[in-house]
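STRUCTURE REQUEST FORM
Protein name: Glutamate 5-kinase
Source organism: Cecembia rubra
Requested output: structure tokens
Priority: standard
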Amino acid sequence: MYQSHNQSTLPLQTCVIKIGSNVVTQEDGMPDFSRIKSLCTQVSFLKNKGIKVVLVTSGAVAFGRKNILLPEKTNPVLKKQIWAANGQIALIHTYQQLFSELGHSIAQILVTKEDFRDRKHYLNMKNCIEGLLSQSIIPVINENDTVAITELMFTDNDELASLTAAMINADTLILLTNVNGIYTGPPELQDSKLIQHVDQQTQDLSSFIQASKSSFGRGGMLTKLNMAKKSANLGISVFIANGKREAILNDILNGSAICTQFEPSQVKQSPKKWLAHGEQYYKGEIRINEGAKNALFSNKISSLLPVGVISYSGDFEKGDILRIIDERGNRIGLGRAEYGIKALIEKTGQKKQKPIIHYDYLYLFTHE
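Status: completed
Returned output:
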């Protein structure tokens, strides 16, 4: 069932590469400079092939830990903030120096989850990254750990990379970790086999994955699996691969990599890509009747009209993400509000009104 599929050479144009903590650190948690240098050389190889590359990199905390010794009893959140604030400087300086030697310029972008929640922030960030790429500059993105509060932090950089790939309409997402991909059991066991190809028909793989997290990151393989599936569903080719392997990016490019590849489905429109990742960012909720639900799920292109709205909650404005539920409270989709809660109160249940969610800004969960 999990046979190897021969990979063909990728039609790569725009690629988001996520470099995990365990890739850029040694076993003792200190930065692995030789590995970072190797990856920069490989990225340079892709760039010289005309491929646009965005890096989402972990490692700031590791660099900070190397530079600053903190008392054991220091608050864990404060400890991470201090290490991240200090280490981010050293991390970005390392990338800048290495890429400069290879003839490439970089730019640093620090983001929080809030930047993806607001459509204006989102579009500003998208325009900035696309502007950098148009000038052949490599955007190096990381979460702003110094200001992110726990409930608004990304699950890990896999989520950030997945969001970024969707935002800039990348055709490929590469998640580099310290194992070859997803296995049928713990990777260290001899009986475990690498799952090399995942398509829309592949059974749920989550049962194979241990719930353990990496030593120096805060995410695990389950997050990678979930983000890979979501990205592939949006039409993005996804690879989970071992960043410790020599020339792994070159191998992915020529189709010879030993890794897990997720086959993409049909490409979705840009607004729907934004909405697909909006489950945690919605500002309001709308309950709709059965008639409206049937209209949304029919083959006919339908927007959500106020006449089909039963009730609503939240304090939202035009442009905010809304979650849509049916009469029984089941989650059925996400959409962008065409107007705020005050206008919806006036229009609810009325015919011949402007849609509260236009079809172009509607994402139904059956797409997943």
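Reviewer notes: Residues 76-101 form the longest helix (26 residues). The CA atoms of residues 317 and 340 lie 4 Å apart.
Form closed.
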